[in-house]
């Protein structure tokens, strides 16, 4: 489960930037085609935040849908899985969105 390491990195980054101020909310963006499972991040968040100024913070996760463009037929389409195929059958695609993993904002006291 790589989500544990990812969540640990998120909490470490927050602690570095907030200088140990009490964190009340964390807002993440985890795209549907990022390869990261939001429910696993939610589970790990409580574990890695325990005993730190992030403990007890509300975790909000935005999950934008994936968007892709086919190199073969130039169609743009929605995608939500890690295996992305164009409706035309081509696997030659460019992901346009939904692959992000970022800390959108952090609220502190």
From TrEMBL:
Binding-site residues, Ni(2+): 2
InterPro entries referenced in this protein's UniProt entry, alphabetically: Hydgase_Ni_incorp_HypA/HybF_CS, HypA/HybF
Keywords, in A-Z order: Metal-binding, Nickel, Zinc
Binding site residues for Zn(2+): 70, 73, 86, 88
UniProt keyword annotation of Transcription present: no
Similarity comment text for this entry: Belongs to the HypA/HybF family.
Full protein name: Hydrogenase maturation factor HypA
Native organism: Pseudonocardia zijingensis
Gene label: hypA
């Amino acid at each position: 489960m790589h989500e544990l390491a990812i969540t640990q990195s998120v909490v470490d980054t927050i602690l570095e930037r907030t200088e140990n101020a009490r964190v009340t909310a964390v807002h993440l963006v985890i795209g549907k085609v990022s390869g990261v499972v939001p429910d696993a991040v939610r589970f790990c968040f409580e574990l890695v935040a325990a005993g730190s100024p992030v403990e007890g913070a509300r975790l909000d996760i935005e999950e934008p849908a994936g968007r892709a463009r086919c190199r073969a037929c130039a169609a743009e389409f929605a995608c939500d899985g890690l295996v992305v195929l164009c409706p035309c059958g081509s696997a030659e695609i460019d992901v346009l969105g939904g692959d992000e993993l970022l800390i959108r904002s952090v609220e502190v006291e």
